[in-house]
Amino acid sequence: MRFYFNKTSPGVLIGSSVLLLLLQTLLSCGAAGALLVDDENDAVVNLKIGRDTTSIVKNADRLRKTKSGKGSSSSSKKSTSKKKNNKYEVWASDQSNSVPGQTSAGTKGSFLWIWNSRSIRRQVKRGLEDAVPLSCTPDKATGPCDLLDIFPSTLERCTAAGCTGETLETLNGFGRLHGVIKDPFNRYVTANIFAPGGGYVGVIDAETKEAVALFRVTKVNFPVPRSVHMSFWSADGSAIIVANLHGKMIERIDVKRSNDGSITDLEFNVSATVYLGKAFDKTEDASFFQGNNAFGRPLIGSITGDYAIADTGDFTPSMVCKETGCEGTQPQGGARTNNVPICPIPSSNNNVYVTLGGGGLFVLKVDETPMKIVGEYGNAVINGAGCGGVEANGRIFLNGGVSASGAGADQSTFTLYSFEDDEFSTTAQPKQNSPMPIQVFKDPTNTNTIGNVDGTRISDASGQIPTTSTRRDSHGAWPTLDGKYIHVVDRIQNVMEVFDSQTYERVNTYDLVSIDGKSGRDGPSGPCRAKSVLDDPGLVLNDPAPDLFEITPDGKYFAVAFRGPVPVSVTHSAQGSCPGVGIVEITEGGKAGRLVDVLRTTNTVDDVSVASIPGGHNYVGAERSDVHGAIVVFK
Q: In what order do the strands lie in the sheet with 372-377?
């Protein structure tokens, strides 16, 4: 416990065994009151001391109810979180298999790593033991959490017509946790399960860590018929927007909530669907799963709507082909050659910015049914293949990086765009490439690929080993708490680029390999080196390979996903040496940063054979952990 003689005095650590002695001392001094804070149990003890009696009022139960949302509205919960401004959990999605004996990486199961802020502080600030991951199931004391335990194998697939008798155990593709995304109230997260052909998206309660729902997206007539790359919540939390990547469509789950923000129902609304490819050919409807979760409680969910209402045609509102090659007028401002949706980035105006693998962009209005295209761009205007997207001061910032497919192995891309989010209209005559975005930054060394025509070279074959590669790959992005600066990672060069959200100026570049964030590989090494995998002498150490990230509620740190020596996705640009979550201290008023520690993850259960790592080192060790995304859930 920490003892405070008054509200402004510095806290003094005490043990609970000295509490009685403390009270006697306070009484003898005539003190009016004091405050105890129990770090272990997040409890507050208010000591009210009178002449004749001493009473202890415990506020822990009230605080816990507020944290969980019970007995309070979601708005009061949000207000409380802001007031406390220091408690959080870091959730990290590990794409590797959670069971042995698989023939391919990222095909069955996955691990979800969750640490609370107290455990992280003990590691980072006090240099004590490594942070201990939390459990997600009642039968285990600690994590990591196995995706196959969160969503039991007995769950049964159901359609709008009824249940099929198929269980999760018998179905393919339930693996590769590509990312978890929190809702606006920090109450729930989506679990995006990206194994090709699988097409699963789940919902998890952020407080109890239990499964709430599980869906499977629409299947279409493609060689790989569906997959869920990522899903995001609408700004008001009333919808989940799902990127069915291999199915080339954006789908929507409607969210029903009680007055306190708890989810009461989830409806996969097929009427809302927007197909982005050409010649739509559905082979299986979307479905949901029934059965009990690991806590013995039933999942919720249903299928509603009609595909006949959905936007499954070949043309945009301006009557040009959604995807280049359909029988009709082709898009202007560059082509849209491969409309696999990567990330549907939501805005506060209920727009969603859908980045495309082959470049180009669609902006959808998500609160209409079907969702309506209100912006359409060719790949010369918005180069592919972006995933990092954030909103700051009414502007949407989107980046462009290398292609995830094998074609990206000799690409180099670091680009950032900005849109004024209030300039899209549902009533104005639709126009292509309007409103035009601001090109905030484009590296002059970008290759002329996925829509770029401004460069001087068509390829960069320098690979991904950090000591020799000249390639760039922009991916994750996040703003400072005040929205003044946007930080964007380079997955290959292990740096963060920082931009002013108002002036668009690139104000700084800092590295994640040196102890000060300024010295690069020539200076004293940062924490990644000490946390690097050591069972293969040929693997280059101190190679974070940073990916998706978010900020802590106090604005002091970024929690950044660090990739592993066997990257499950984007194998040509994402090999790293210290898999886990990097804790990056934000410095210089938000303009800079430095890596201060790594929450190390590990997986030696997965024994899948390592294929060749394009442009990297053909790793021969046992580590398979590969963290693709990290989020921060405010408590």
A: 341-346, 351-356, 361-365, 372-377
